[in-house]
Every structure is written in structure tokens, then in C-alpha cells.
Amino acid sequence: MLITTTNTVEGRRILEYQGLVTGEAILGANIFRDLFAAVSDVVGGRSGAYERELKNARDIAIEEMAAEARSRGANAVIGVDLDYETVGGKGSMLMVSASGTAVLLG
Questions:
Q1: What would the 3-class secondary structure string for the chain be?
Q2: Cα end-to-end span (Å), the chain
Q3: Which SUPFAM superfamilies match (predicted)?
Q4: Would you say residue 38 has pLDDT above 60?
Q5: Quick one: average pLDDT of 4-11?
Q6: Measuring CA to CA, how many Å separate 3 from each of 20, 37, 61, 67, 106?
Q7: pLDDT (tens digit per residue) in 52-86
Q8: Are 23 and 98 in contact (CB under 8 A)?
Q9: Considering Cα of 8, then 63, then 102, then 69, what sign does the dihedral take?
Q10: pLDDT-wise least confident of 37-41, 44-48, 80-84, 100-104
Q11: Relative to the CA of 66, which of 9, 39, 44, 50 has its CA 20 to 30 Å away?
């Protein structure tokens, strides 16, 4: 499955549009509490544990999006956009969402 932020793929033709596909992953408040408690993991103002959790959430969202595209018969997702939003009471959770257009490339 080819996944790209561009709206075209050089050297390939879009044969068919399969529609909008999305994927989401949510990190709960306990993740934040656990990660901030691990102060020893913070180096140079960055938290490796927090970054790993964000990467994991991003990977889940992208894989969900790709699975939806596969189920529609697509072999690529173009125009992919990743968003990070706080949700829940007082922004207690972080949602990572991926969206794009499922297409069949020739």
C-alpha cells in the first residue's frame, strides 16, 4: 500500500477513486500521567517515551486508514493529512487522525 501526502504519484495514473479513508488513535490521560512521571527519560527537553507513544498512535491511525483503503480495493492513499487534537474533558486525551483519498493506481 503506497501512502503519500501528495495528490499524484509520479509515473502512475489514477485509474479509480475509492473515496475518503480515515484512521484514528487516542492516547488516554493515564498515558500522559505515566509519561510525565518518567522524568528520567527527558533529555534536552524531549521525552523519548512520549515521542514513542505519539509515533505508536500515528502508526495505528495510518494502518487503520490503509486497512480501510485495502477493503475498498485501493492500492494507494494520496493526499494524506495527519492531525493531532486534544479531546475529552479539559483536553485529557490526545487524538491522532489520518485521512486521505483511497485510489487504484495503474
A1: CEECCCCCCCCCCEEEEEEEEEEEEEECHHHHHHHHHCHHHEECCEEHHHHHHHHHHHHHHHHHHHHHHHHCCCCEEEEEEEEEEEECHHHCEEEEEEEEEEEEEC
A2: 13
A3: YbjQ-like
A4: no
A5: 97
A6: 13, 35, 12, 12, 15
A7: 888 999 999 999 999 999 999 999 999 999 999 98
A8: yes
A9: positive
A10: 37-41
A11: 50
Residue 15: all three cell numbers together = 485509474
Question: Scanning the structure block, which residue is given the C-alpha cell 509515473?
Answer: 11
Residue 54, all three cell numbers:
505519539
> Taking Cα atoms as reference points, which of 33, 62, 28 lies closest to residue 47?
33
> So what's the pLDDT on residue 94?
85
